[in-house]
Amino acid sequence: MGERYAIIYSVICILIINKSKIMKKIYLVSVLVLIGLVGQSQYVFNKGGFALNAGIGLLSADGFIPSINVSGEFGIFPTGDVGLLSVGGVVAYKYSTYSFSLWNNSYNYNQFVIGPRVLWHLQTFNSDKWDAYAGAGFGLRLWSDYVFNNSLSDIEKKAKASPYGEAFVGVRMMFKPGMGLFAEVGYGTLSAIKAGITFMF
User: Fold this and answer.
1) What is the distance between the alpha carbons of residues 163 and 156, in angstroms, rounded to a whole number?
2) Amino acid 16: pLDDT
3) Are 172 and 194 spatial neighbours (Cβ–Cβ below 8 Å)?
4) Average pLDDT, the chain
5) Domain-by-domain residue ranges, the chain?
6) Dihedral pair phi/psi, residue 22, rounded to 5°
């Protein structure tokens, strides 16, 4: 916003000094173009924008196999120079294995989460490359688990479902318009660390 005010102030001074009507019109058109360009290039993510993240997740209590994560968000409510609120959702999948020593066998199970998110993007600095944000969400976790059968002679796989909540912080680095990298650290979904590619529309 400081850049806008500086441009407007400079043009007003020029208009006062310069009496030519043609020059005044040229300066006015120029300042409107500059204000528009400054406003559009200030931030990576703006109101009405859509972002899509796709990547893998690491650091999980359910084994070392990475999770697959896809999330998206839509900018809806700017808060001046402080930040921007967005809403979106996340979908993630993870395959895990473990050994059950009593039967000396290995077992596998799948996990799947889906749910909405609310994010706040920090916009106290001007950058067309970096986007810092934090957020929270909730949703449904679906997974399969092994339990003893009725006779306690073997174990069997059963499907389960439960709610979950998450909190996270993240950052994007754009290496060209509309495309970049992202990283998130948080708690509540299938992996504590997520990283991958991001697209802006």
Assistant:
1) 23
2) 45
3) no
4) 79
5) 2-40, 44-200
6) -65, -45
- pLDDT exceeds cutoff 80 at 113: yes
What pLDDT, on the 0 to 100 scale, is given for residue 12?
Answer: 46
- Whole-angstrom distance, CA of residue 94 vs CA of residue 66: 7
> 44-200 has which fold?
Porin (2.40.160)
**166-181 burial string, b = 16+ CB within 10 Å, else e?**
bebebebebeeeeebe
Q: Mind giving me the DSSP string for 2-35?
A: HHHHHHHHHHHHHHHH---HHHHHHHHHHHHHHH
Percent of the chain with pLDDT over 90: 44
Give the number of other CB atoms < 10 A from CB of residue 36: 11
Q: In this structure, what DSSP letter does residue 36 have?
A: H
